[in-house]
Specification:
about 1000 residues; mainly alpha; five-stranded mixed β-sheet; 10 strands; disordered C terminus
Length: about 1000
């Protein structure tokens, strides 16, 4: 007897053998059923070797209790203690699967299925499983027989007799035999239907790929034909009845549970399409309507039941279409987009535990392998396997995947599939979520051989393998492109030039030969630089391929690399800074403007990093002005001073463009900016500030060179139009007015000559041909337009406006804001014009009619010939002009009474009008959306083409690039144009109401 407070020796031994509840285990060992063997050390050792000794012992006691008599119990105990193979198999299953323990307790004689003697019993195939199911004549007996067969598969699995790939193949063979048995039951129930038709069952997914899980939907497609002389319609109806019955036999819940769901949703048209089609109907659908993912799914198609000859005809007919799928437009983008959509649909709370669909999970390996198969299987039949691991081995053997990468992926895939099997085996439930309960994790870890610290070791190994998959997922596709042009170790297979060309074409490269030359120039050789490039390029190629013009991205990258090749920090930045490489790839492949700006000073690449380069956040105006004025102060003359100012402007334009592109595209770690209005305001403000400080620096340089520290006249620059409204785009001119006031004692003539000379010299210096983009100054909004003097005094402006001012000039002055020069003079000019742009009591009826007439005239006369009005961002219906004139009319009418309307910024004025109840929130939102979209399109056109434009590009690649910037994926250009027309059409309806007046009609 054990002394109080002391543990028995049995308790201690149980702890040592891995029991987590030794007290309960002691009670079970003391039960009458185990009395003959309770002291047998062999039994205890065997239980301790299982995944869950407590579970195994409990299952063994239940199985003994279920035996029909003492003789049967004695036979079971004798076999367990004397026959090591049976003991290991039985206890292994009981320690890994509560569901199979339940089955054994209901069918206590089924443990005999684990007594294996014949070699064929060790690796059974479809025929052996068919014999195991042969006596099943109804759904209930089929379930019992299925579980009996499953027992033997699970036993070989948990004991290590078969590896995970063999287990998955056996599960697929058992599913095949089960589908055949279910179809036989359905045929027996409807012999007349069976006589009318030929029915083939095509396995898809993991069953078709010979790599099934313990519990998974079995995906199928049905093909039906009429037997000779039968009516096709009647035959298809009969085939549909048989197919439906077969599915129910497998899927429905009975007293013995269900087997697994049979899912036919991969068929043409999915659940909306007919369950059974003829072969010709299948073929017609795939030739005309099928999407890329449907061809990807057909990779695993395999005839398994019913009329196998018909099934083979189906495969032969569709196989050529499968291997042409990679020729489809946007093929790679479609496959990758589908993968992203799968990840996005995972609940946030589950994504870190999702073994199959999560990042670094099983699906990443499967998608990557299938993508490579579809690209290269056209020319290499050795790749046409539906089994993931077989296909991966073939890809490595052919040089399509690096051998080292293939080995790592094979190991990761096997580990993750083993985890999946153990998770499902426990309850025989369909799940891919790693459990959170420590007991579950302990059982899974021990079942995989992790005995020291099962939970910690399991989590570590799981994370390590998912990390490998994440790292290799993209690299798997792009790395061999480099191996095709690099020096490889002797005996290492490489991607052939033709295979490399196929892969580049599939990625969207229009000139694969040129792309291979660029890769060779960048990555060949044994230098450290080439080695770093070989590390970077696989990922960069993927980012380039995500753009509308991968060729331009790769070419631009080569140019930048050539220019900075000897700079020690360049490749180190791309390798070590998390964001720099992806940001650079986005910028280089998004269009012409940003790369052109970068090529003029490639060291600006440093801005793309996370570190001391300053990042892509726009700089404050005061900082920029301080930098430019300091550079001007250091220069020897005005030419060098303005050159320095223009250099700063070019660098900051690149920063702004790069931030715009990255914010619009998004990155792997940062999604695209959701609020496009924020992007528009940020870009417009940054470019307007940059233009203002460039003018300030140029003004300082001109004055210093011509007059020293003091100009004979005070001088100010007034921003107008988009410049004054802080809404400049990349291609905008600087609309300005110039105002001066002679200093005390200076003749007006001398002051005017000085002011005009300043303007002339500023315009000349800012347009001198150089590596930096010119800044064009437009003063056409001045009084009398091009016929009037470039510069006026405040008194001259006052006299003109008092006597001659027209309503359009008051409208133009709504955007006036001092941007450079004498602050006091600028402030006084604003005080002068405020009564003009915010007239007391608003506009009279005549003035309103005049504005409407001018607007209608502009629409009819200024729209370029041949342009589609509905797609013209400035003058088209619902475009920039419509929104701005509507807002400005509200400012002219109500600005005197509503302080919020006294702003030069369109969106601020619109928000103020809404706050003052001058426009409904719905209408304000409609106008704002249209204005932001039109502005974004103009910015996109400049970024893509490198020159300004008010309409969408006509070229396919340029149009696609604009779409990509606006958030439209490959193949959705039509959606982009439709959305633009819809948005601006709604805005035009509001404009007609607010600007032209409801019921008054528009001037013609």
């Amino acid at each position: 007897m054990t002394a109080p407070g002391r543990r028995s020796s049995t308790f201690t031994r149980l702890l040592r053998h891995g029991f987590t509840d030794p007290s309960a285990a002691e009670r079970l060992l003391d039960s009458a059923e185990l009395a003959p063997v309770r002291s047998d050390p062999v039994l205890l050792e065997a239980l301790g070797a299982t995944a869950d000794p407590d579970l195994a012992l409990h299952g063994l006691v239940r199985l003994l209790e279920a035996q029909p008599g003492s003789t049967a119990r004695r036979e079971l105990l004798d076999t367990v203690t004397a026959a090591k193979p049976l003991r290991d198999r039985l206890l292994g299953v009981l320690g890994a699967s509560a569901a199979l323990a339940d089955h054994l307790s209901r069918h206590p004689s089924d443990w005999h299925a684990l007594v294996m003697y014949e070699p064929s019993d060790l690796h059974p195939g479809v025929e052996e499983f068919e014999r195991g199911l042969a006596e099943a004549t109804d759904p209930v007996s089929l379930r019992v027989a299925y579980r009996r067969c499953l027992l033997s598969i699970a036993a070989r699995d948990v004991c290590g007799t078969t590896d995970v790939a063999q287990t998955a193949a056996e599960l697929a063979d058992l599913a095949t035999a089960t589908l055949r048995a279910a179809l036989a039951i359905a045929r027996a129930a409807a012999p007349d239907d069976s006589a009318l038709c030929r029915l083939a069952v095509i396995a898809m997914g993991k069953c078709g790929g010979h790599e099934l899980n313990y519990v998974s939907d079995v995906d199928v497609i049905f093909v039906g034909e009429a037997v000779d002389g039968a009516d096709e319609g009647k035959a298809l109806r009969a085939a549909t009845k048989l197919a439906s019955h077969m599915m129910r036999v497998c899927s429905e819940t009975t007293v013995e549970g269900s087997i697994w769901p049979v899912d036919a949703n991969l068929r043409p048209e999915g659940r909306n399409g007919p369950l059974v089609r003829t072969l010709s109907s299948h073929l017609a659908y795939y030739q005309r309507w099928a999407k890329t993912w449907e061809f990807q799914a057909l990779l695993k198609a395999s005839p398994v039941a019913g009329d196998i000859e018909l099934g083979e005809e189906y495969i032969d007919a569709l196989e050529p279409l499968v291997w042409k799928a990679a020729e489809r437009e946007n093929f790679v983008a479609d496959v990758q987009k589908m993968r992203r959509r799968v990840v996005e649909n995972i609940p946030v709370a589950e994504i870190e535990r999702e073994l199959k669909l999560g990042p670094g999970g099983l699906r990443d390996v499967e998608f990557a392998v299938q993508l490579l198969q579809l690209v290269h299987g056209r020319a290499d039949a050795s790749l046409r396997s539906g089994t993931t691991l077989h296909a991966l081995q073939a890809l490595a053997a052919g040089g399509y995947v690096g051998r080292g990468d293939a080995v790592q992926l094979d190991e990761a895939y096997r580990f993750l599939r083993s985890m999946e099997h153990r998770i499902q085996l426990y309850r025989l439930r369909r799940t891919h979520l790693v459990p959170e309960d420590e007991a579950d994790l302990r059982r899974i870890g021990r079942s995989l051989g992790l005995r020291a610290d099962p939970v910690a070791d399991l989590n570590r190994e799981w994370k390590r393998h998912t990390s490998v998959v994440r790292r290799l997922h993209e690299k798997l596709f792009y790395r061999p492109l480099l191996d095709a042009v690099a020096q490889l170790a002797p005996g290492e297979a490489r991607l052939s030039p033709e295979a490399a060309r196929e892969r580049l074409v599939a990625l969207g490269y229009a000139d694969p030969a040129a792309a291979l030359r660029h890769l060779e120039a960048l990555a060949s050789g044994v230098t450290r630089k080439a080695a770093i490039q070989r590390t970077l390029l696989p990922v960069l190629l993927g980012w380039f391929a995500d753009s509308a013009d991968p060729d331009a991205g790769l070419l631009n990258f080569r140019k930048v690399s050539d220019a900075l090749g000897k700079t020690p920090w360049y490749l180190r930045l791309l390798r070590d800074e998390g964001a720099a490489a992806e940001n650079l790839a986005r910028v280089l492949s998004a269009g012409r403007l940003a790369p052109d700006l970068l090529m003029r000073a490639p060291e600006a690449v440093a801005l793309l990093g996370d570190g001391d380069g300053g990042g892509l956040a726009p700089r404050e105006r005061a900082q920029l002005e301080q930098e430019i004025l300091a550079a001007v102060g250091r220069a020897d003359d005005a030419v060098h001073a303005v050159t320095a100012a223009r250099g700063v402007r070019r660098r900051e334009l690149f920063r702004t463009a790069a931030a715009d592109i990255v914010g619009s595209y998004g990155t792997e770690t940062q999604p695209a900016e959701a609020d496009q209005g924020v992007l528009v305001d940020r870009i417009g403000g940054a470019i307007s500030d940059l233009t203002a400080v460039t003018l300030a620096g140029t003004l300082r340089a001109v004055v210093r060179e011509g007059w020293g520290d003091t100009l004979p006249t005070r001088f100010a620059v007034i921003g107008m139009g988009r410049f004054g409204g802080h809404e400049l785009g990349y291609g905008s001119d600087a609309d300005v007015l110039f105002v001066h006031e002679p200093r005390e004692g200076v003749e007006e003539r001398v002051a005017a000559e000085a002011a005009n000379k300043v303007v002339s010299e500023m315009r000349r210096l800012l347009q001198i041909p150089s590596a930096d983009p010119p800044l064009l100054i437009d003063a056409d909004l001045r009084p009398e337009g091009k016929s009037g003097p470039l510069v006026r005094t405040v008194k001259s402006y006052e006299a003109y406006y008092r006597r001659w001012s027209l309503v359009w000039e008051s409208q133009a002055l709504l955007r006036a804001e001092p941007v450079a020069g004498d602050d006091d003079l600028g402030r006084r000019f604003i005080e002068l014009i405020d009564p003009l742009r915010y007239p007391a009591e608003g506009l009279g009826d005549d003035a309103v009619r005049e504005i409407r007439r001018l607007k209608a005239r502009m629409e009819s006369e200024r729209l370029p010939r041949g342009a589609d009005p509905k797609l013209h961002t400035k003058l088209g219906p619902g475009g920039l002009s419509d929104v701005e004139w509507t807002v400005q009319l509200l400012q002219l009418q109500h600005g005197w009474a509503e302080p919020g309307l006294r702003t030069t910024r369109t969106r601020q004025a619109l928000a103020a009008a809404c706050a003052a109840d001058l426009i409904s929130a719905e209408d304000a939102g409609t106008l704002d959306e249209a204005w932001v979209l039109a502005t974004r399109v103009r910015n996109a056109v400049m970024l893509v083409r490198g020159r300004a434009g008010d309409t969408f590009p006509s070229g396919g690649r340029e149009l696609a690039a604009v779409g990509r910037y606006l958030g439209y994926g490959p193949g959705h250009v039509g959606d982009m144009l439709d959305d633009y027309r819809r948005t601006t059409r709604r805005a035009r309806t509001v404009v007609d109401e607010l600007f032209y007046g409801a019921g008054n009609g528009r001037p013609r």
